[in-house]
Amino acid sequence: IEQYEILALNATAKFVASPEGTALAYGSLVLMALLPIFFGALRSVHCSKSKNASDMPETITSRDAARFPIIASCTLFGLYLFFKVFSQEYINMLLSVYFFGLGVLALSHTLSPLMSRIFPESFPNKQYQLLFTQGSDDTKEEIVNYEFDTKNLLCLVIGAVVGVWYLLKKHWIANNLFGLAFALNGVELLHLNNVNTGCILLGGLFVYDVFWVFGTNVMVTVARSFEAPIKLVFPQDLLERGLGASNFAMLGLGDIVIPGIFIALLLRFDVSLKKNSRTYFYTSFLAYIFGLGLTIFVMHTFKHAQPALLYLVPACVGFPVVVALIKGELTEMFRTTAKGFPQEPRTKRIYQNS
C-alpha cells in the first residue's frame, strides 16, 4: 500500500473553483472513498472463510504494523530524492508501466464476482490453466500455476482496455477506476490480526502523516509529482470544462485503505458476535465519514493540505471504543482475531492443554 498520498487541493493560480464545483469535487471524493471501504469490508468477511489460495488474505501482525511507518517514511523520502535528482518524466513513465500491470490484475479481481452474477449458469465457462515449470521428470518444479476461467479472462480484457486508456491518456476516470480497484482489494485482502495491531498501525501512521505534511514539504511534493493511480482525483472545474477539466482535488489511497482494513476487522467482529447486528461496523463507518468531512472542512478553511489521518484515526478508533465501553464488550473486542473471532484468554488455553 502506498502511504505517501494526502488529501490535498491542487489549485492553479489562474482558476478559482466555483462553490458548486468545489462541493461536487469534495462530495465525489467522499463517495468514492466510501465505496471500496463498504464493499471491501463485506468481501473481507467471505475472504476470511475462503479456502481458495488466490483469495487468501494477507495478515498484518503487530510487528508488521510497528515497522510500516518506518518503511513508508523511507519509501517516501526515497521518492522525494528521486524526483529531485532524476527526470520526473522518466520516473513516471516507469511507474506507469508498473501500475498498468498491477491495475489490470486488481480491476480483474474486483470485477470477477460481478461477472459471476451477470452471466447465467448456462454460460459456457471453460477452465484454463497457466503452468510454468522448471526442470524435467523427477526434478520438475512449479514456478507459476495459475487457474482461471472464461469469466476471469473477460475481466482481464476489460482491465487491459482500461489500462491502455490510462497508459495513453492518463485520464482521471481511468486513474480512478484503477484507484478504486486498488483500494477495494486492499480492504478485502489485508487483514489485521487483532484490534491491538490496528491501533499500533493507525497510531504509527497518524504520527507519520502529521510529520511529513506539517513538518516538511516532502509529502506534498511527492503527491503532486507522482503520476500513478494511487490517489483518487476529481476536477473542481468539471462544470466549466467538462471531462477535459484539469484542476483536481485528490485523496490518497492510504487514507482509504488504512482506516478501511480497521473497519473491515470490526465488521468481522460484528459477524462473530452472531447478534444479527453490525453496530461496530456502522459506528466506525460513520466515524470515517465524520473524520473525512472534518479533514475537508479544515483544508478548505485554511487553504492548506491536511494529513487526513490526523482526523480519521481518532474518529475511527475512538468511536468504536466508546461504543464497546458502553456495551461492556471492550475486552472481547480487543481479543478479536483476523477472522473476527475472539481469542481465548491465555489462562483458559493453558488450563485446557493441561
From TrEMBL:
Location(s) in or outside the cell: Endoplasmic reticulum membrane; Membrane
Main location as per UniProt: endoplasmic reticulum
Coiled-coil region(s): none
GO molecular function: aspartic endopeptidase activity, intramembrane cleaving
Keyword terms: Endoplasmic reticulum, Hydrolase, Membrane, Transmembrane, Transmembrane helix
Taxonomic superkingdom: Eukaryota
Membrane topology qualifier: Multi-pass membrane protein
A single BP term in Gene Ontology: signal peptide processing
Transmembrane region(s): 23-45, 65-83, 89-107, 174-192, 199-223, 243-267, 279-302, 308-326
Cited SMART domains: PSN
Cellular component GO terms held in the UniProt record: cytoplasmic side of endoplasmic reticulum membrane; lumenal side of endoplasmic reticulum membrane
Any matching Pfam family: Peptidase_A22B
UniProt xrefs under InterPro entries: Peptidase_A22B_SPP, Preselin/SPP
This protein's record includes keyword Iron: no
Family classification: Belongs to the peptidase A22B family.
Protein's UniProt name: Histocompatibility (minor) 13
Organism encoding this protein: Cyclopterus lumpus (Lumpsucker)
